[in-house]
Design brief:
The structure is a single chain. 26% of the residues lie in helices and 40% in strands. The chain has two helices and ten strands; from the N terminus they run E-E-E-E-E-E-E-E-E-E-H-H. The strands form two sheets. The protein has a five-stranded mixed sheet, with no helix packed on it. Strands 4-3-6-7-10 form a five-stranded antiparallel sheet. The longest helix has 22 residues. The two termini are 31 Å apart. The model has no long low-confidence stretch (mean pLDDT 92).
Length: 144
């Protein structure tokens, strides 16, 4: 890619079964990969990654915004980050009481389960989803 053709922004799209949740231009994106968090900047190499439930952070107009996402997948290239996920929540949409109740249920389910069993994986995903919602609700940063 020639220097004058390099991307200076990323198109970020987040889709769920309920429809498109985000479709905007951003400066950078951080996502919760199954092997750890990773960031994407303009001109990133092509990447396909599995996502765990967690917090997505993105910079728009110099401001960091956040949202919670469920498990899913991300595809990135030099100018676009596409996220397909089962859940999406903005900080203002989260009930901390409900998220904490979901956290307690998931923690109770995890007790005695065998690591790696499907039931354990699902309970861990439920716990991670609850914790992500609690984190964004308590942070005060809004998603657009």
């Amino acid at each position: 890619m020639a220097l004058d053709q390099q991307a200076t922004a990323l198109a970020l799209t987040v889709a769920t079964p309920a429809g498109m949740q985000l479709d905007l231009s951003v400066e950078s994106v951080q996502l919760p990969g199954v092997n750890g968090e990773f960031g994407v900047l303009p001109n990133h190499v092509e990447l396909l990654a599995a996502l765990r439930p967690g917090v997505v952070r993105y910079r728009k107009d110099g401001q960091t915004l956040i949202a919670a996402i469920g498990a899913g997948y991300s595809e990135a290239d030099s100018s676009h980050v596409r996220v397909i996920t089962e859940f999406f929540a903005r900080p203002q949409d989260v009930s901390v009481d409900k998220a904490k109740a979901d956290q307690a249920k998931a923690e109770a389910r995890l007790k005695g389960l065998v690591l790696g069993d499907q039931e354990q994986i699902e309970a861990q995903n439920d716990l991670d989803w609850a914790l992500a919602r609690i984190e964004i609700a308590q942070s005060g940063a809004a998603a657009h």
